[in-house]
Amino acid sequence: MGTFGRTSGFALACVAAGFLGCDDGDGGGGAGGGAGGAGGGGSETCPVGTTAEGSVCVLQGDITQDLTLTNDKTWLLRGGVFIGNDTDRTVLNIQEGTVVYGETATKGMLVIRRGSQINANGTAAAPIVFTSPNEEGSRARGDWGGLIINGRAPINGCDAAPCEAEGEGGTGKYGGADPEDSSGTLRYVRVEYAGILLSEDNELNGIAFQGVGRGTSVDYVQVHMNKDDGVEFFGGTVDVKHVLLTGIGDDCLDWTDGWQGRAQFVAAVEFDDAGDQGIEADNNGESNDAEPRSAPTLANVTLWGSGSANSDLGMLLREGTGATISNAIVANFGEACFAIDHAATFGNAWDGVALNGALVVQNSVFWCPDSALVKEPEIADLPFTVAEFLTLNTGNDEVDPALTGVPDLRPGAGSPALTGAAAPAGGFFEATDYRGAFGDTDWTAGWTNWDPS
Fold first, then answer.
1. 43 — phi, psi (to 5°)?
2. With 90 as the cut, is the pLDDT of residue 148 above it?
3. What separation, in Å, do the N-terminal and C-terminal C-alpha atoms of the chain show?
């Protein structure tokens, strides 16, 4: 569990209050795995492209030359920080153990424009952390903006390809015709206490993958205590592994506009005070049959609801999405474990005679003893009910997964989740015997944060 370094916390509080010449007089803090710790970095050491304010290096506006953020300095995002110019390549390198703060007053956020890259290569011992400028104990959802990555992979929503769109909150253009596009690397990265309100009904996701291509590498990522969705895919083809979503204020994992990537080892845990869906999956709200259709493949997913009045649906597939979801555990959601909505979504699963393979949920465990297994839509003349869908697909069980608990989501001794898995085809996926995001190994240990403030 991470902690906020006292010295760098003082420096950031000083800067965030608007005072120049702040200096904690130390320069220490250490990289470590905590949410703080990158102290020091005097004015003479801030690189070109940043501004020195005492011991803090401030990033703001457009950055169009390569930049490296090192773990011996304190970094602050002031307002919208845009890497690249949407044409030429600019590379933002971030050293392991580096901590980057988002300024609250200016709604600090980081945007990687199309054609540019972020190479954030942390380690389990020294993750890269994007976090609140506030001291431990007073951090909260929405303290700053979030991380937005724009790519040139295909999206839907246009009359003719290649399709482009403008990101929410003025976060730039995304989309194109290159499914292999690379926006860099995220490895052992935490994004926490983000999701600031930009305008009415417009809050930022923790990480928004907007038209991001499969040339991008994403592995070991946590989004913690975000005010809006944890991770959302707006089209694209990006693949992800080892994703942890904790204390999210809205939907934990969300996709729309034609996402066709892959994901394995995804865990989402709601907290009692907020939440909505574990997964909210759309194709396109304006045109449910828009192409390319959302059709990701997911394996080894654990969705753990709070069971409170703030908890809604474990998995909601709607607005024409396709998907293949295998080896999931969905448990403890307040309204129901599983739901399908909109006729176009049902059409993905049924060709008029039998299941057609465009919407599959298989080899999964559902357990919502205090609510309902499924929520049925108010739609007439459907080929089957939602409950029948789970039965028609193979290997689904309504049974207590008997997990160890939270934050340890590994199956306990004798758990039915220890067996019954089926690996999807393709070299991306690792074969497992177990269902859910965890087997014997807790891959979240040592680099994640579970502290609500």
1. -60, -30
2. yes
3. 11
Buried (b) or exposed (e) across 96-135, using 16+ Cβ within 10 A? bbbbbbbbbebbbbbbbbbbbbbbbbbbbebbbbbbbbbb
What integer pLDDT is reported at residue 120 of this predicted model?
Answer: 98
Distance CA 343, CA 347 (A): 6
Burial per residue of 36-72, b for 16 or more beta-carbon CB atoms within 10 angstroms, e otherwise: bbbbbbeeeebbebbebbbbbbbbbeebbeebebbbb
- The model's pTM: 0.93
354: burial class by Cβ within 10 Å (0-12, 13-18, 19+)? exposed
Q: β-strands 173-174, 165-166: how paired?
A: antiparallel
| Residue 244: per-residue pLDDT | 98
CA atoms within 13 A on the CB side of 203: 22
% pLDDT > 90, the chain: 84
Q: What counts of helices (H) and strands (E) characterise the chain? A: 3, 30
SS (H, E, C) 330-389: EECCCCEEEEECCHHHHHHHECCCCECCCEEEECCEEECCCCEEEECCCCCCCCCCHHHH
The CA distance from 207 to 329, in Å, is 23
258 Cβ contact list (under 8 Å, min separation 6): 154, 155, 156, 157, 235, 236, 283, 284, 290, 291, 292, 293, 294
Query: If you count them, how many residues does the chain have?
Result: 453
Tens of pLDDT, residue by residue over 232-258, are 999 999 999 999 999 999 999 999 999
* Predicted local confidence at residue 22, as pLDDT: 52
Does position 426 have pLDDT exceeding 90, yes or no? no
